[in-house]
Design brief:
Layout (H helix, E strand, L loop, with lengths): L1 E6 L3 H14 L2 E7 L2 H11 L3 E4 L8 H8 L7 E6 L5 H6 L4 E4 L4 H21 L1 E6 L2 E6 L3 E7 L2 E6 L3 E5 L2 H5 L7 E5 L2 E4 L3 E8 L2 E6 L5 E2 L5 H8 L4
Parallel strand pairs: 1-2, 1-3, 3-4, 4-5
Antiparallel strand pairs: 6-7, 8-9, 8-12, 9-10, 11-12, 13-14, 14-15
Helix pairs in contact: 1-5, 2-3
């Protein structure tokens, strides 16, 4: 399921897209925005994998947003949803996934999401880390990574076969991870989401994640709401 941000200056248009997304499936709507500045802030904080982006908005346009996103190391996929057909050439020069005209029909919306899902799958399959090990640099697919832990000026990267130690910060590395596949659960720990089998209340407001492949992992107090939201649990 892709994390999706809806950007449109008209509240009714946002409602329509949300309804289309619910009927089509495959999307988790993580937020909405009604102008370009709010969109860029939401992209930075919510880290969507797909943005449904209007073009004609007050101030900067959707074209401006897409152009700015090209400077990101891992920008979200963009599907333009607009009433204007004359921006199509500019849009595809920016390598957007699709260009959908309003009023949006369900079958056309579904085709756009299908294209986005294909590109998302390709990105996930190709995502790798190059990690030092025994005097060499090893190519490690993100699909092999189980957990990441901060250790002073280094990050310990855990896979099923071995553990790597790379210089850097957990926050910097977090920006390179697919947000739907990894979740920060503590200031010192990022866990692959498919390892989470449940939560356990330890006491005094403290919770552990039950890890299907290892020991329980402590949840940082400031991350508990984020973990609950990701798992779809009430606060």
């Amino acid at each position: 399921m892709m994390r999706c941000l809806i950007v449109d200056d008209e509240p009714l248009a946002i409602q329509v897209l949300r309804s289309l997304a619910e009927r089509t499936g495959g999307l988790e709507i993580v937020g909405t925005a009604q102008h370009a500045r709010a969109a860029m802030h939401a992209i930075a904080t919510l880290r969507p994998e797909l943005v449904l982006l209007d073009i004609g908005m007050p101030g900067a346009s959707g074209i401006d947003v897409a152009r700015e996103l090209r400077a990101h190391e891992q920008p979200p996929l963009v599907v333009f949803v607009t009433a204007y057909d004359h921006f199509a050439a500019q849009a595809f020069d920016l390598d957007v996934t699709d260009y959908v005209l309003k009023p949006v029909q369900q079958d056309r919306f579904a085709r756009a999401l299908g294209r986005a899902a294909e590109r998302h799958a390709q990105r996930t399959d190709q995502a790798v880390l190059w990690l030092p090990y025994a005097g060499t640099m090893q190519r490690v697919p993100l699909t092999d990574v189980l957990q990441l832990d901060a250790e002073r000026d280094y990050v310990r990267v855990v896979t099923a076969d071995r553990t790597y130690l790379m210089r850097g910060t957990l926050t910097d590395l977090e920006q390179r991870l697919p947000p739907g596949n990894f979740l920060r659960v503590h200031r010192s720990t990022i866990l692959r989401t498919d390892r989470i089998s449940g939560l356990r209340h330890v006491g005094a407001g403290t919770w552990d994640i039950l890890d299907s492949e290892g020991e329980p992992v402590r949840i940082g107090r400031s991350y508990l709401d984020q973990v609950r939201a990701h798992l779809g649990l009430p606060g």
